[in-house]
Amino acid sequence: MKKAELVFIPSAGLSHLVSTVETAKLLLARDGRLSITVLIMKLPKDTGVDNYIQKINPNPSIASRLRFIHLPQQEETSSSRTFVFDLMKNQTTHIREIVSNLIEQPSEANSQLAGIVLDMFCTIYIEVANEFNLPSYIFFTSGACGLGLIYYLVSQRFEQNKDLKEYKNSDEELTVPCFSIPVPAKVLPAVFVEEGPMPDIFLGNFKRLAETKGVMVNTFYELESYAIESLLSDSRYPKVYPVGPLLNLENKESGGSDRQIAADEIKNWLDEQPENSVVFLCFGTMGSFEETQVKEIAIALERSGQRFLWSLRKPGGKGPMQLPTDYDNFEEVLPEGFLDRTKGIGKVIGWAPQVAVLSHAAVGGFVSHCGWNSTLESVWFGVPIATFPLYAEQQLNAFQLVKELGIAEAIRIDYVRDMKGEKPSEIVGAEEIEAAIRRLMAEEGSGVREKVKEMKKKSRMALEEGGSSFNAQSSFIEDVIRNIDG
Asked: What EC identifiers does the entry list (predicted)?
């Protein structure tokens, strides 16, 4: 029996790595002919990746067919926003050597290298695949609407020579093929419309998606059927495989005994709360707010009278990729007396075991930054979202959830936090936040809760034998096997 090996190359950082590993594990479990090597690229001073890798304990049936190779960790030589792309460029020689070695000495007997699966930000390595006459694929960690928007913007920029800076702060609404309704320019990811070189750097990276043989998307047909049909019907673009939702449901990226103690304390508190009574506030790996906004959120929570669990993080320093940290004392940013007045109905925490919280029966709503992984987790557990996007493609996700799909309530759709810390962010007032939380937690109202519950069922059916994502995974595997049979 011929065996096919794939090389997965996620971009630097934990969130994309976790999705990549979950994809690799799923494909290996699906077909014994596959083996996968994942190349690990780390950001400077990043310890979270090592903690995560150490805790991966795959099913024994796939353990021998999944391996990791750590690329050399580089020092941060610049505070430039292009440093992540510079880091990837500097790894090209190492990746070329690894691929060459795998061709000469496959990881398993009778195995043949059948392709390279690249993260959506790693299209630079298409050149390596081409050097060895290997097909390249993309693993797109966001959704089908996000992929469709990128194709649209690439076409606007490079085929129609559109200056995308015209869309910044514009009231224009765009006809984007993957959306059934017009898309406001205000929800476009900021990096595509800002001044300077970054828009062309990012769009130049995404332009190369069209050179690949196929794109695996972390979504499922029932969630984004309109977008997926649009992508499948356009012959200009590679084949699309909607293979999700691919989630790390074990929270193995969270390392350390301190975090386990915190997770146990959180679970114990949730165990004491009534079913569907708690609103959970959590804003992702990079999510934090300045003191003024923190106080508005606190006032909204207190006025709502709602039970809450709030993951409150301290903003990192200025500069790119500065991660939030934990507060030594929450009282330094919260309104005076807030913790005393909300004692018993609310709990303020630092880091949160998000999957464990969302899966708990006490949690009935999720105030979220709308990162795609968080969005899929909320759908998987049937917990409706109130949208509070911060950066990247989160405004687009918020628009999609509220307006396109009708499965979320809006706090804001187009809110943007300046992640560079160079200018103050707009403040969302307590009244607006309180009203959204009340809508979110209402038993009856807009129908959002019922729609999310229905999508929860569909997300699980998609992965079962005969489901839409199961079939897309099968299609991808058979296409990969044909690479070596041909």
From this structure: 2.4.1.-
